[in-house]
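JOB MANIFEST
job_type = single_chain_structure
chain_count = 1
residues = 107
[input]
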Amino acid sequence: MPFVFVVPGPLREFSGGRGDVRVEGSAASVREALGLLWRECPGARDRVLTELGDVRPHVNVFVDGENVRYRGGLDTPIHEGAEIIIVPAVSGGEMPSPDEAFRHGSS
């Protein structure tokens, strides 16, 4: 059963530079599918999962567009040919105060 993982830029050093990693094997859950990915790209595991095997707080995993955090976590059922996207959180910048936001919005 093939699965396609979409690997973000920061993790591509562990996937040989590939943005898409296709893995073959049998998996009934996201956890099992990730296990197939770790065999292909072992260095990515510690960047995605904690020492306890949970998805890191700053990483999201989507299966066919659905965030697994809201669908059963790593035990979310998976189907043959599923697309699994690993997305690191993006943050930064500084929120303006309400007064600054108003001034910038009214210019």
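[summary]
The helical segments are 30-40, 45-48, 98-105.
Confidence is low (pLDDT under 50) at residues 101-107.
exit_status = 0
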